[in-house]
Amino acid sequence: MSHLRKHILVALVEDKSGVLNRVSSLLRRRSFNIDSIAVGHTEQPGFSRMILVVEADNQRIEQARKQLDKIIEVVKIIDITEQDHVARELALIKVKSTPATRSEIIQIVDIFRANIVDVSPDSVIVEVTGDEEKLSSLTELLRGFGIRELVRTGLIALTRGGAGPLQIDTLAPQKGASREEAESPPDW
Question: Which of 20, 78, 82, 179 is surrounded by the fewest CB atoms within 10 Å?
């Protein structure tokens, strides 16, 4: 029997226009619902790291991973769900506040090791990082004061330890070489 669960796919992609669209379109065509997607520059200019959280069984996620790997700008894609990794999400939460409620909000924010990054006469903006459970718990507690706006980044993740499975040095094409030239052995 198939067991659905959330998988964390991490892709190293060339930093080119349209890559995010090609990746998300491929998953959409195969009826995957993307729980979250986060993309950002890496330590190597010209490459971005894309983190996708998708719910599926192991067989279906492996098929999707293989299809995504065929996209020319995808240098490598792996499922790190079973690997030892660090994963975090960021949220900004604008909460209604008054002089009477502000100190209680500050106490709650402190308990969650979050930060207040903006204060106005009728609201505060809270910044919190952590796992999905931490962000959801803080959000539920702040709901009692009234949430005006909420935005979450989606999950970002790296594997623990030394060089990760998407280490740039071993994957990046030689400067000026095409991906195919970089992956094929020299002709000597």
Answer: 82
**10-residue block means of pLDDT along the chain (188 residues)?**
84 92 91 91 91 91 90 92 93 96 96 97 97 95 97 92 65 44 42
| Residue 106 resides in a domain | yes
Enumerate the β-bridge partners of residue 83. none
CATH number at residue 22: 3.30.70.260
If asked whether residues 19 and 76 sit together in one domain, one would say yes
- What's the CA gap between 89 and 65, in Å, rounded? 23
